[in-house]
Amino acid sequence: MQNKNTGENKNNKNKNYILWYAITAFILIYIFSTTKNFITTQEISYSAFIEMIKTNQVERVVISSSEIDIIPKENSERNNGKLLYTGNVGDDNLVELLIENDIEFTAKTVQNNFMTEFILTWVVAPVICFFLLRFFFSKMGGRMGGSSMMKFGKSNAKVYREKDIKITFDDVAGQDEAKESLKEIIDYLNHSEKYVEIGAKLPKGALLVGPPGTGKTLLAKAVAGEANVPFLSISGSNFVEMFAGMGAAKVRDLFQEAEKNAPCIIFIDEIDSIGKSRDSQLQTNDEREQTLNQLLTQMDGFDSTKAIVILGATNRPEILDKALLRPGRFDRRIIVDRPDLKGRIDILKVHAKDVKLGEDVNLEEIAKSTPGAVGADLANMVNEAALRAVKQGRNVVMQEDLREAVEVIIAGKEKKDRILSPKEKRIVAFHEVGHALVAALLERADPVHKITIVPRTMGALGYTMQLPEEEKYLVSKEELINQIMVMLGGRSAEEVVFNVITTGASNDIERATKTARSIVTLYGMTEKFDMMALESVQNRYLDGRAVRECSEQTSTMIDEEVLKIIKTCHENTKKLLEENRDLLDKIAEYLLEKETIFGDEFMDFVCEKYPELRNKKSKENKEEKQELVEE
Ligand code: ADP
Ligand code: MG
Ligand code: ZN
């Protein structure tokens, strides 16, 4: 959809270019023709002309009503290669004189140039002037914040309209709650009279809220497809234009178009770009405010018996203007959140439909290994896998393609040509086994799925992949602490084995610190601060950045508290690894030899020493659960 819009934008730009080309060409031709005149012709006085006739220097004469063109003889002293001309003074004796001197003469009957000249001066030039002025003013208007005087004509609202949308709810996997809420809207679009009859106020707008790539745009289209009504869509950023007042005009046009097409859906994507709260800005933006006001008025104003539903999509609902969210406008909020395990399986199935799958493909496994991935990621993974299959010369996608695609998206492509020195390789191996071993030995850490020391393009020299056995929505403090210990396991192993520390742990450290900070500031899990909120999360659906909500002094104490957690975890991790040094060595040597080992092989080593761990994190256990999911 976005593509189409930009396409139209381009079209419009092209039009502008054509205009500019025309103007430049015109000016060039004009300059050229005048200078050419100037170079090739020369004016002389009438008396000089008479003199020339009398001294027999004239070859030929062309008489027009205003001008006489003189072609001098070759030997004439006035012959300098130029055409001579003089004004026609209406001399009655001229003809006689010409006949007397035997000079050929003609009269110009039709003014060849008359029509073109007329058109140029009275049509083309004014049109060009008009465009120039218009361009100039609208630029000024934009800069001055614009009054309505600066508006010209109709807006070129680029409404992207689609009549028969083929997308239905079947194409949107998961998101069952969102679909449920949208079903009502579909019913309303199809049977609006039912609602009018009973006197129910019809829903006007709904806001689709969620992280990027979860299928908001897709859902909006699917609503149109299910209801089988036209879909008018525009992106919020399209409203905010260089020309002041254009945004508002676009909103007007959009609603006019909608009334013509009712029942229909208006979809405003990325609505936050116009719907930003008006009071939160340091700088006011007249254009956006005008546009927003227009939108608010239109939403109140349009004929509410006409079945028009406005859907908006955003990933920053918290910055929207309150006026936009009040009842009667976007009063419904439909959360389109990251898919859970089942949702991910369904999304993979939807996208795998168009791809030839090999027999060994197990989409559940892939879904399990991608917690946190959104629909767009999963669609991308399936495609990556298909690309890889082609590259490998196969005509079906195998499980290994999918696995690799997941890793490519998580960690970047394998970079086999990066050569690590044997010593570095050893360090990396021990580092990764450190992570894995801590994960295996701790009660509440996710089981290890894969350990590899094959470098990846995104910078990782190796990595350990853990897979949660089940999706967790609540995480206990103990689990968080265990997570931190696993993250610190890499560096701790380096310390225990080599007694050196390297730069390889920077990402681990960053993540561990973030988790520790959340324990203190967000989850109220420390004794010191009890249940006090010290930070608040902004942009929940984007980066989830936390903003400090406390004084400087408290902030210092927070840092101390975070440090305490990290230090304790580090100590404990080191102790744990020291106690299991034998395992660490054994597995690291094996990893150095194999480069990549999977969870089962790894657990075989661990269970030799701790047989009781077998049941807790065993493969059979996992398979049982997988079957449950399949049902
Ligand atoms: P958003 O608007 O929320 O940022 P989109 O609707 O543009 O995300 O989704 C981008 C792409 O990701 C879609 O075109 C689709 O291929 C895929 N996708 C996202 N969510 C889903 C889903 N729930 N089911 C199927 N495909 C999905
Ligand atoms: Mg979108
Ligand atoms: Zn690490």
Name the descriptors.
631 residues, alpha/beta, Signal recognition particle alu RNA binding heterodimer, srp9/1, Rossmann fold, Helicase, Ruva Protein, domain 3, 4 domains, 5-stranded mixed sheet, 54% helix, 11% strand, elongated, disordered C terminus, binds magnesium ion, binds zinc ion
What this model shows, in words?
- The active site is at residue 432.
- Homohexamer.
- The chain crosses the membrane at residues 18-39, 118-137.
- It is found in: Cell membrane; Membrane.
- The structure is a single chain.
- This protein has 631 residues and is of the alpha/beta class.
- The chain has four domains: 2-143, Signal recognition particle alu RNA binding heterodimer, srp9/1 (2-Layer Sandwich); 158-335, Rossmann fold (3-Layer(aba) Sandwich), CATH 3.40.50; 341-411, Helicase, Ruva Protein, domain 3; 422-630, Peptidase M41 (Methane Monooxygenase Hydroxylase, Chain G, domain 1), CATH 1.20.58.760.
- It is built from 24 helices and 16 strands.
- The protein has helices at residues 2-40, 46-54, 94-100, 112-144, 176-190, 192-198, 216-227, 236-239, 246-261, 272-275, 286-301, 322-325, 341-352, 363-368, 375-391, 399-411, 422-441, 477-498, 506-521, 552-579, 581-594, 599-609, 613-616, 619-630; strands at 41-43, 58-63, 67-72, 83-87, 104-107, 160-162, 205-209, 231-235, 264-269, 308-314, 332-335, 448-452, 463-466, 535-537, 546-548, 596-598.
- Helix 15 packs across helix 16 (399-411) and helix 19 crosses helix 20 (552-579).
- The radius of gyration is 39 Å and the shape is elongated.
- The two termini are 36 Å apart.
- Mean pLDDT is 81; it is low at 1-11, 141-158 and 618-631.
- Magnesium ion (MG) binds at residues 216-217, 269, 313.
